[in-house]
Write a sequence for this structure.
């Protein structure tokens, strides 16, 4: 079972996000980048499958601040190789990134599965895993929460629909899957293990080939979202705010 | 006819989804701006009886095929690709739900079309279409322009009131044949129904809902105590379910349940669009979050910008005190 997992660095939305003076990007000075949450689930699913069936996991990530730490973390979690794609910034074009990756990925094949998060929080333009599947002419399914390998190049794959209903699909391998959630929460890795990986393992670098595809969706500006309304804020000490809230609940007949 | 505004009419298990009407309302505004007709595109098998519900559109393009009986991605994509190629609409609006969202991956890839995600609005401007897209979990809004046509837009639920997308008279229906091979690579097998949980969160009058801000599973006890005092139950947003701190049956949002309790108390939930989809219609929404810019405050009726670990114990105590004094 050979698996390629794609990781993308995105801003940690727990932090404050500030728009840069150009009005079209985020102020990099204040950004803390982390692996896109769905991609972290894709990595976990890949490692779980490897633990179950053997094989190797290759983690591939485009160059970005803090990507080395993310790739060493992937190695510490159980990836066998970590690859950094250098020399391109896709900005907001998920489509351009997917097309460049599609050119490079064949060197890491054959693989039974290519996994990526089913969506990233900055995907203005397209979905990475689906475009990759199209470019590589492989079958695709997104919103995946479970992968069971069957005999002879087939897998039973579960994806989420709505209202807690899921769908079970049978797929031929190799395939590209957009992962929504791994079967278990992404494992925690102590910093010491990541440091150990930094000492003993290496990140391979591969340069991107060719110019990125022209973006079909142009980002004109970024701003804090305008909201039609806003909550009435209850202020004061915790006890005061709690008191005001209780008053409202009584008034509304909830208490 | 080329240049029309199209809305993908979503059906889920035999019913037209509520969000379809929201998209029809948005599509009608856009079609009026562009001076073109609005058409609904309905794919499925034996779904013709649903077309009278799509009267907000001038007409319905209907594709009926056995391969479209279940929401399997490839046949949907191939059918839409044939329609879009032949008819060249100006744009196709697609609901950003777990049912329809995936066609926004394969279809633009197959036809090399522009596709803008996370849209809350689409307008005509300077000969282009301009979308307002909510990025980074709803914390930043991008204005994105698309000049090529046909263009695809993934529309977040809640973009317009659904009532504005319901029409009175039955629209004209044009049935269009498509060629679809039997699915070979990805086959739909069956639906997996949700396991019944100990609590049905859609039936609760009060929900105390926790998000990432709850930090760990042990802290859930605080929410449980508050829920008990309020006579409600505890639910959660995606990160809490992903961590396994609450069972799937307690998930509110896009993949989980849609709830409309009398009180929805959101504790440490930032309010990403995926979460809002499941709780936006609650009667009273109260949010507690340390981040004054959290998107949840935009839809909450009341908010407290504070640490939930300060507010929740104070609130629980206050409720208990008032209930006790009332009983006395």
């Amino acid at each position: 079972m050979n698996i390629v997992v794609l990781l993308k660095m995105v801003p940690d939305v727990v932090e404050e996000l500030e728009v840069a003076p150009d009005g079209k990007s985020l102020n990099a000075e204040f950004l803390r980048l982390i692996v896109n949450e769905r991609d972290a689930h894709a990595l976990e699913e890949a490692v779980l499958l490897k633990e179950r069936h053997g094989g190797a996991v290759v983690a591939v990530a485009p160059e970005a601040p803090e990507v080395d730490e993310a790739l060493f973390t992937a190695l510490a979690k159980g990836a066998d190789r970590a690859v950094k794609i250098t020399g391109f910034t896709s900005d907001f074009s998920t489509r351009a990134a997917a097309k460049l990756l599609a050119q490079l990925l064949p060197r890491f094949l054959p693989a039974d599965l290519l996994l990526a998060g089913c969506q990233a929080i900055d995907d203005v333009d397209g979905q990475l895993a689906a475009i990759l599947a199209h470019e590589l002419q492989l079958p695709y399914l997104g919103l995946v929460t479970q992968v069971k390998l069957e005999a002879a190049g087939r897998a039973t794959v579960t994806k989420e629909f709505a209202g807690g209903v899921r769908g079970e699909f049978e797929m031929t391998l190799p395939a590209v899957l957009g992962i929504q959630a791994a079967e278990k929460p992404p494992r925690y890795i102590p910093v010491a293990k990541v440091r150990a990986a930094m000492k003993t393992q290496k990140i391979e670098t591969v340069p991107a080939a060719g110019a990125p595809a022209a973006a079909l969706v142009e980002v004109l500006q970024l701003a804090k979202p305008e909201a039609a309304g806003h909550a009435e804020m209850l202020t004061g000490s915790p006890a005061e705010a709690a008191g005001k809230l209780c008053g409202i609940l009584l008034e509304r007949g909830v208490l | 006819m080329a240049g029309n505004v199209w809305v993908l009419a979503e059906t889920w298990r035999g019913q037209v989804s509520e969000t379809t009407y929201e998209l029809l309302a948005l599509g009608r505004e856009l079609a009026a701006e562009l001076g073109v007709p609005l058409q609904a595109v309905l794919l499925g098998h034996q779904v013709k009886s649903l077309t009278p519900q799509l009267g907000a559109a001038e007409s319905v393009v209907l594709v009926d095929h056995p391969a479209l009986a279940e929401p399997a991605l490839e046949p949907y994509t191939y059918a839409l690709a044939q329609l879009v190629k032949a008819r060249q609409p100006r744009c196709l609006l697609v609901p950003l739900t777990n049912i329809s969202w995936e066609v926004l991956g394969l279809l633009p890839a197959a036809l090399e079309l522009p596709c803008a995600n996370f849209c809350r609005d689409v307008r005509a401007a300077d000969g282009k279409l301009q979308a307002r897209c909510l990025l980074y979990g709803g914390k930043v809004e991008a204005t994105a322009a698309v000049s090529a046509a046909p263009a695809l837009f993934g529309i977040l639920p809640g973009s317009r009131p659904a009532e504005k997308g319901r029409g009175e008279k039955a629209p004209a229906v044009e049935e269009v044949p498509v060629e679809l091979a039997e699915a070979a690579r990805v086959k739909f097998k069956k639906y997996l129904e949700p396991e019944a949980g100990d609590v049905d969160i859609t039936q609760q009058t009060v929900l105390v809902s926790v998000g990432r801000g709850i930090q760990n599973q042990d802290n859930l006890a605080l929410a449980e105590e508050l829920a008990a005092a309020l006579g409600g139950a505890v639910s959660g947003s995606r990160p809490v379910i992903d961590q396994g701190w609450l069972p799937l049956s307690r998930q509110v949002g896009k993949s989980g349940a849609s709830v409309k309790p009398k009180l929805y108390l959101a504790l440490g939930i930032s309010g990403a669009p995926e979460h809002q989809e499941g709780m936006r219609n609650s009667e009273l929404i109260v949010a507690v979050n340390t981040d004054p810019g959290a998107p949840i405050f935009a839809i909450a009726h009341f908010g407290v910008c504070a640490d939930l670990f300060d507010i929740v114990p104070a609130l629980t105590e206050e409720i208990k005190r008032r209930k006790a004094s009332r009983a006395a």
User: Anything to note?
Assistant: Residues 37-53 of chain A form the longest helix (17 residues). Chain A has six helices and 13 strands. The mean pLDDT of chain A is 93.
